[in-house]
């Protein structure tokens, strides 16, 4: 599913199969060279560079699901815990040319949730379409048949590409469990490239590019890539993912689309290292420190640290890291993947101190209240790395610098015109210009 937890999507209740002649209609628009957008390598105008990953094919996949708009919880007809997939769309893309070999789109009839007016307006799916749709089990069986006969039986390899890990890491396993559907091994522990993660790696090489969010629409704007068809169509969104993928791999950065996320391997490393850190994502952007703490405490887990991950423009990313006192607690926290926190179905994945270190400069505390994003009394901002630390810490969690004694922190490098630092030496919080 695209764009955080937006739901539902498009097209025909039957399979739409196509050979390579029906390759992605998406085109990567040659961007105008400016100070904010790097020119693409000259070779790209003819063909994309080949990603250096080990896989022969990419299965680019996007789901759309039932949803409702922002109402009081008691009035919602569909929640994060009850959503059902209603469009199951995917493409098989060749590694060498990023050309679509096959595309398929199936609509799925929901069993427990309605097609709300909000969902229908968002996706343009009609009740008639869903009334004539098949089951989720049939959609999975069709995908499995293609992968088995066209890839695995021919001795070839593949991995998934998604826009966020929600589709395969949260929604599908939860819904399959509820509907007693046995998933193939490669769907139980899906190896995948997350377009959002790959874009993050690409941005690290191009500080001149400002990516306002990781929505498909904003990525297309930032990279001068044409959107394909309609947003919130699983099939069209899959094609847009391929178009963005072509742009990113054109620069041949050694860390972009080269190392897929392997959940089984991550879990092995997590256990071997006895890591005490998990990564949490798909959070509400305005979630507070207290709400997160209460969530874990309700699960008999007490975090040692909660660290928010910010975007390039210093806004909440909807994710972060949770540090526990014991490895056993971190291991138990992984079982919370797919549970509902507030209005969101969250993702919880293995992580490590090394992974946190790669996000230096983007870490801070979660806000203390919905209306006031300042730290809690006594929290302090590290002069060296700008991480907001809890009052109980005598040294910075990220860089180990000692806590300041009455020193107002230096102005951060991500300041924009009008931003200001709190003059309180025990605070020193970076405030946006809009705050009075």
TrEMBL record:
A Pfam family matched in the record: RRM_1
GO molecular function, one term: zinc ion binding
RRM domain span: 276-353
Keyword tags: Exonuclease, Hydrolase, Metal-binding, Nuclease, RNA-binding, Zinc, Zinc-finger
SUPFAM superfamilies recorded: Ran binding protein zinc finger-like (SSF90209), Ribonuclease H-like (SSF53098), RNA-binding domain, RBD (SSF54928)
InterPro entries found in the cross-reference section: 3-5_Exoribonuclease, ERI-1_3'hExo-like, Nucleotide-bd_a/b_plait_sf, RBD_domain_sf, Ribonucl_H, RNaseH-like_sf, RNaseH_sf, RRM_dom
Coiled coil segments of this chain: none
Region (Disordered): 348-376
Compositionally biased residues, Polar residues: 348-371
Domain RanBP2-type: 376-405
Protein name: Uncharacterized protein
Lineage: Eukaryota, Fungi, Fungi incertae sedis, Mucoromycota, Mortierellomycotina
């Amino acid at each position: 599913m695209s764009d955080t937890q937006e739901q539902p999507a498009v097209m025909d209740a039957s399979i739409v199969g196509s050979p390579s002649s029906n390759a992605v209609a998406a085109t990567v628009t040659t961007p105008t060279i400016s100070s904010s957008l790097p020119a693409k390598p000259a070779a790209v105008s003819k063909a994309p560079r080949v990603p250096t990953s080990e896989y022969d094919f990419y299965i680019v996949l996007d789901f759309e699901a039932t949803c409702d708009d922002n109402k009081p919880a008691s009035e919602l007809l569909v929640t994060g815990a009850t959503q059902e997939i209603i469009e199951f769309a995917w493409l098989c893309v060749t590694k060498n040319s990023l050309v679509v070999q096959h595309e398929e789109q199936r609509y799925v009839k929901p069993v427990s949730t309605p097609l709300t007016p909000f969902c229908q307006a968002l996706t343009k799916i009609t009740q008639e379409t869903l009334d004539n749709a098949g089951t989720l089990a049939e959609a999975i069986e069709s995908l499995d048949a293609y992968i088995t006969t066209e890839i695995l039986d021919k001795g070839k390899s593949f991995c998934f590409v998604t826009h966020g890990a929600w589709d395969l890491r949260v929604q599908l396993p939860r819904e399959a469990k509820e509907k007693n559907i046995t998933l193939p091994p490669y769907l139980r522990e899906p190896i995948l490239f997350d377009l959002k993660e790959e874009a993050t790696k690409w941005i690290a090489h191009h500080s001149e590019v400002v990516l306002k969010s990781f929505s498909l629409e904003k990525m297309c704007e930032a990279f001068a890539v044409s959107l394909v068809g309609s947003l919130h169509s699983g099939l069209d969104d899959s094609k847009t993912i391929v178009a963005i993928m072509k742009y990113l791999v054109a620069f041949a950065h050694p860390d972009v689309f080269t190392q897929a996320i392997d959940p089984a391997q991550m879990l092995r490393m997590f256990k071997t290292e006895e890591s005490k850190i998990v990564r949490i994502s798909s959070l509400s952007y305005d979630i507070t420190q207290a709400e997160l703490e209460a969530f874990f405490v309700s699960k008999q887990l007490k975090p040692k640290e909660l660290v928010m991950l910010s975007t390039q423009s210093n806004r909440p990313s909807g994710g972060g890291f949770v540090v526990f006192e014991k490895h056993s607690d971190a291991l138990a926290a992984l079982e919370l993947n797919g549970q509902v926190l507030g209005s969101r179905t969250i993702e919880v994945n293995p992580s490590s101190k090394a992974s946190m270190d790669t996000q230096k400069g983007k870490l801070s505390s979660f806000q203390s209240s919905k209306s006031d994003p300042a730290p809690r009394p006594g929290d302090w901002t590290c002069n060296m790395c700008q991480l907001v630390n809890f009052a109980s810490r005598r040294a910075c969690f990220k860089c180990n610098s000692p806590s300041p004694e009455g020193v107002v922190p230096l102005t951060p490098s991500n300041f924009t015109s009008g931003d200001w630092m709190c003059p309180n030496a025990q605070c020193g919080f970076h405030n946006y210009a809009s705050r009075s």
